[in-house]
Amino acid sequence: MSLTRKNVHVEMTLVNRTILKGTLVIDRTTRLSDTLNKHNKDFLVLSDYEGIYHIINKHHVIKVVEVESIEFEE
What is the CATH architecture of 5-66? Predict the structure, then answer.
């Protein structure tokens, strides 16, 4: 684990109603909302729980909810 970054577990809803669950890596001293509202970055990188990386344009995101634990669907 990096001393300057932290993992945040999220559930993200996109404009096409796709729901992604995974991890965003953000600056340790930054809140998730600050990262989402940064105007100088248009993309987020989400690592889902199957190890797949998704590069997401923030303009395609409807909702992001931080979750405390990993929730696997059976």
Answer: Roll (2.30)
